[in-house]
Structure formats: structure tokens, C-alpha cells
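Re: the 273-residue chain
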Amino acid sequence: MINFTEEQLERYSRHIILKDIGVEGQIRIINGRVLIIGAGGLGSPAALYLAAAGVGTVGIVDSDIVELSNLQRQIIHFTKDLNTAKVHSAAEKMKALNPDVTVKVCPEFIRADNIRHIIKGYEFVIDGTDNFAAKFLINDACMMEGIAFSHGGILRFNGQTMTVIPGKTACYRCVFEAPPPDNAVPSCAQAGVLGAIAGILGTIQTAEALKFLAGAGTLLTDRLLYFNALTMDFTKHRLQKNRHCPLCGDHPTIHELFDEHQRTCDLKAAAHS
């Protein structure tokens, strides 16, 4: 049982008075452990809101440095942070926002030979990556480790997200068995992305993480949420576990992690079919 200080009671008061969060939910948040993979457009709002919420331990993984073109959407990084490691730039802002939060940085690129070690011990993972190879690897590793996670992807004015609970819900490979062919989907660098889209989607992913920790509401499982900001249309596509899924189906063929061929992009064209 946590004895809140007066400062904590005031800081988290808007959570504590929420019927579906309350004292017990906030305690679970404070004891929570969430990992963000990718300190970019999606990871930026996620990191800030997780810190603001008081999540006890937040891990952040990214091997990149801050570049000028990042600043249009990666709001945790400032102009002064150019050429700084993204994980250190993010950790600085998170600690400034909430000193109570423990931030663990991992300035590495995730690979099949290191991801299980990186994600182990966390309760929830937020996928903020920008390439298909990483997304499939995160899915496979979280499924093998039994860790819930939120998938997210953005491109142009569009975003998509789903939450996966291993052993209970459809996984990413149930929906998208393998990455698309080379050049089938443009990257954000090629096609562009509205900066605010990253904020919308990263915030939705964070809400899922906080709901998971607090045990509140209904998670976005077995559903793919897709939105188009040009029209402000939000649609949900019902999903179900695929018995032919190569990872979690009746006769799985994937038993070990492997690195997919790198294909940079976030949003698969088939997502809204």
C-alpha cells in the first residue's frame, strides 16, 4: 500500500477522483512498468503522458539522435537537443515533468538477439517504431514473453492502432502475416505526415497503457482503430484470432525470433480494407 504525500495527492488528484481509476488505480499506475520502443512521433506524447500520470518505471528505447526534421512532430525534443541521443533528450523532459518517475534509457536498435532481454520485466509495451521489421519483431517478442502491447502506425493524415493481449486476443500477425513487398508502401520521409497525427495516435496508445495498468475500461483488443484526420473519420474493424496465424495459430511455424527485412514505414495499405 502506498501512502501518498500531500504533493502526490494534489499532482494525481484528477485521476484519484475518477470513478474508474481512484486511489487503487493510481497505486497500480505508480507501481506500473511501461516500455516505449521509439522516442519519435508516437513515443514523444506517450513518454510525456506516462510521466505525467506517475507511471513508476518507464523504459524508452531508441538508437537515434535528434534531427531537425524530427521537431515537426516529435514534441518531446527541442531545438537545443539537436544531435543529442533521443533517449536522453526524452528522459530529461520526463524527469523535469515528474521527478517521481524512474526513467530507464536504452540507446539501442532492437534486434532479434536483444529484444527479449530489453522488454523483460515490463507489463506493457508501446510500439512507437516507424518500420515493419520492428513492428513484427515487437509483436513476436511480446507474444513470446506474454507482455501486452499497443501497435501504432501513421502515414500522411492517417493512423491505426490495436492492443494485443498475448494468449487472449488477435496478434499483429493474425492481421498482417508478413511485411508488404518492398516499395509497396511509402515511408513518412517519402510521403510526409501531419505532425499532429503522431500526437493523436501516441496519446491513444498511452490511454491504452494507463487503462491496462489501472484495470479500467475496455481495451482496444480484437479491433483495429483507423482514422483519417482530413475527414476526422474514425472507424473500427473487428478482428479475431487467426487459426492460420504463423505465430499463435493452431499450427504455428514461428518458434524463434528473427529479423525481418527492413522496410521503413508505419501504415500498411491493407489496414483499412
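The chain has one domain: 32-272.
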